Amino acid sequence: MPPPSPSPEAGPTSRTYISQRLRLHYADWGNPEAPPLILLHGGRDHCRSWDWVARRLSGRWHVIAPDLRGHGDSAWADGSTYMLPGHLYDLAQLIHQQNLAPVTLVAHSLGGTVAVRYTGLYPQNVRKLVSIEGLGQTHNPKRSGKPTTERLLQWIDDSRALASNPARRYASIEEAVARMKEANTGFSDELARHLTVHGMLQNEDGTYSWKFDPYVRPFPPYDITREDAEALWARITCPTLLLCGKQSWHTNPAEDGRARHFQNARVIPFEGAGHWVHHDQFEPFMAALEGFLGAP
């Protein structure tokens, strides 16, 4: 089921920080005296995608939801090559600059990959880790099995195609909402509108475009090896929750062998959920999340 309407209470405060000369944005839900919890979104998404989750948690946690570089209200990267180390550095800088360690991380998809790798690098900095379909592409034979030459050529072709194909412009928010629903058939009208309104900017001519940099679309040509990813997973000492949708194109990490590389991980698959577990099955997701997090 889609999440319920967000509370009419005041929303988060917009804040920024600097990472590799980029001005990056994050939504701060207040309650700074509480333990810190970061919500990290996935590719072509934005921090306000977490509003329903943040409202449920912000009474007990200091919830911070960043926009990844090239997404939401964060700056676009020069050169527009969005590799994992850049995102990883940005998360490390946010935690370092705001003195958030030890922090709890809840992350989806691309954000999940970033959060998991950060935790593997700095296990002492993370209290608990939740990754929703976010362990990276190293297990995907369609990508990891391709030779480097082929992957580089594909990346160049994909990037060149974007250069000659400007970002789509929509005449109205309603037109963009329709596109959001077309791409995500399980989203309610309310959810699709919320994600669209917070995910768009208005151009000078009055049309609307998605906030994310179009160059985040191509998969980077390089990533760490499966063996290196497993070594990072094995370094994670905190309690870890790996969530997946039974109707997703992603595989279950308990069934494909990835979960066994974690020291202390539990896997929960969700019936009736695709890749967007936290949207597709909000209440069951929150029950699992709050049960795992426990009292701050």
Task: Outline the structure in words.
With 296 residues, the chain is an alpha/beta fold. The protein has a domain at 13-144 and 222-293: Rossmann fold (3-Layer(aba) Sandwich), CATH 3.40.50. The chain contains 10 helices and 10 strands. It has helices spanning 51-57, 84-97, 110-121, 141-144, 148-163, 173-183, 189-198, 226-234, 277-280, 282-293; strands at 13-19, 22-28, 36-40, 62-66, 103-108, 126-132, 200-202, 208-210, 240-245, 265-270. The strands form 2 sheets. It has an 8-stranded mixed sheet, sandwiched between helices. Strands 7-8 form a two-stranded antiparallel ribbon. The model has no long low-confidence stretch (mean pLDDT 93).
Give a nutshell description of this structure.
This protein has 296 residues and is of the alpha/beta class. Helix content is 33%, strand content 19%.
Q: Under the CATH scheme, which architecture of the domain at 13-144 and 222-293 would be assigned?
A: 3-Layer(aba) Sandwich
Alpha carbon gyration radius: 18 Å
Overall geometry: globular
CATH fold category name of the domain at 13-144 and 222-293? Rossmann fold
- Biggest sheet, in brief? 8 strands, mixed
Q: Which parts are unreliable, with pLDDT below 50 for 5 consecutive residues or more?
A: none
SSE topology:
Elements: E1 13-19, E2 22-28, E3 36-40, H1 51-57, E4 62-66, H2 84-97, E5 103-108, H3 110-121, E6 126-132, H4 141-144, H5 148-163, H6 173-183, H7 189-198, E7 200-202, E8 208-210, H8 226-234, E9 240-245, E10 265-270, H9 277-280, H10 282-293
Parallel strand pairs: 3-4, 3-5, 5-6, 6-9, 9-10
Antiparallel strand pairs: 1-2, 2-4, 7-8
